[in-house]
Amino acid sequence: MTLFSARFPINGYLPPPSQNGEQTGSVLAAALTGASSFIRQLGCDPDIIARSVGLQVADEQPPTLALRLEDYCNLFEEVARQSGRYDSGLIYGQQFQPDQLGLIGYIALTSATLEAALVNLVELFPYHQRATQTRLVRMPGGFRIEYRITDPLISHRAQDAELTMGMFCNVFRRALGNSWRPDAVWFEHTRQASTADYAAAFDAPVFFQRDTTALLFSDAGLDVRMPAANTGLLAVLRESLTRLDHSASLAADRRDDLLLQVRREVHDMLPQGIVKLPVLAEKLGVPRWTLQRRLDSVGVTYTELVDETRRNMAQSYLQQRGMPIGEIAYLLGYSEVSAFSRAFRKWYGVSPQAFRKGK
Fold first, then answer.
1. Is the four-CA dihedral 253, 248, 258, 17 of positive or negative sign?
2. How far is CA 62 from CA 97, 257, 316, in A?
3. CA-CA distances (angstroms) from residue 19 to 7, 12, 282, 330, 349?
4. How many other C-beta atoms can be found within 10 angstroms of the C-beta atom of residue 93?
5. Comparing C-alpha atoms, which of 180, 164, 174 is closest to residue 122?
6. What burial class does residue 99 get, using C-beta atoms within 10 Å of its C-beta: 0-12 exposed, 13-18 middle, 19+ buried?
7. Are the beta carbons of 143 and 134 closer than 8 angstroms?
8. What is the DSSP letter of 191?
9. Structural domain boundaries of the chain?
């Protein structure tokens, strides 16, 4: 196989988006195709969940509209929490077909062969989803597709990783049939759902707390022609995707950015101890009463925001097995490990130690 020599020239296209971790994450709205009806199937109200994370999930929104990646990840974490279905990312990814993914999906489908589809998918995915790294790595007898979000403020992203691996699998299945399965799947995070849920989703060994999220596959069948191969259409789709300006869509987003600003400031200030509202207001450059009024207007209290930020950060840190629990307590603003343990047990019903061992 010639997977690494099959790259298409991109003369005339914009340079690849920065993948240095400095970029704010964004994703095209096509990634939410069918999300509204899916959330209802789980017994939840999509409008309530979407408002809680600052998103709209209407199916009619333009597929090339750029959304904040942090909001997108938080949406699926909130779906899992409210529904109690921590396999929801797996389910969403399993049923999500390439042609629902907008430009990047059609780019894969119109590629000449499965090999070319994977090269295009990996090369161009950061145009579909900014602050994201994707790459192909040669392994004995095959390859792996690695996937990693690089926005440092997105700490809670297990559901996103699981649904993305499901989406990637469906590119293979479009060429090789529904019986295709990967050799293995890796995740950076701890196990979220049952072993049976992962078996149903991938029918392959699944490993957790790896250095990267990845889909491992053999090199068999990579020369199979994609059913919708179309060289002329592929060129048009590639140019359309690489010329999209995510920042223009985000700048046109009129929703109140207050919650995002507050979460980011709390994230940065927590290691200094308890974050007081007057201190935060000063950091944001607004009077305390103005900040309080604006929080009231969006139906959330400052205490709830701090608690939510701590909860999300705690889960992310505990998935990093090399990080001592005492250090995590400090980073979350707790003066004692016992105080952190009490708070964590209130959030998740188990101690931090038990959560780290796999809940």
1. positive
2. 18, 21, 32
3. 19, 20, 32, 30, 37
4. 23
5. 164
6. middle
7. no
8. -
9. 26-251, 258-356
Closest among 7, 27, 30 to 238, alpha carbons compared: 7
Contact between 28 and 103 under an 8 Å Cβ cutoff? The reply is yes
What residue type is assigned to position 319 of the chain?
Q
Q: How far is CA 310 from the centre of its chain?
A: 19
Tokens (6 digits) for 159 = 């559901």
Q: Does CATH place domain 258-356 in 1.10.10.60?
A: yes
- In the 8-state DSSP scheme, what is residue 274? S
Tokens in use for 121?
Answer: 């998918």
CA 346 to mean position of chain CA atoms: 26
For tokens 């993914």, name the residue.
Answer: 101
Q: Which CATH number fits domain 26-251: 3.90.1520, 3.30.40, 1.10.12, 3.40.225?
A: 3.90.1520
At residue 193, the pLDDT reads 93
Q: What is the pLDDT of residue 21?
A: 43
Low-confidence ranges of the chain (pLDDT < 70): 1-23, 58-60, 250-258, 321, 358-359
Model pTM? 0.71
Distances in Å between the alpha carbon of 309 and those of 74, 95, 150, 302?
11, 31, 19, 11
At residue 39, what is the residue type? I
* Angle, helix 88-95 to helix 195-202, in steps of 10 degrees: 10
List of long-range contacts for 136-143, beta carbons under 8 Å, 24+ apart: 136/3, 136/4, 137/214, 138/3, 138/4, 139/216, 141/218, 141/219, 142/183, 142/216, 142/217, 142/218, 142/219, 143/3, 143/118, 143/216, 143/217, 143/219
Rg over alpha carbons for the chain, rounded to the nearest Å, is 21
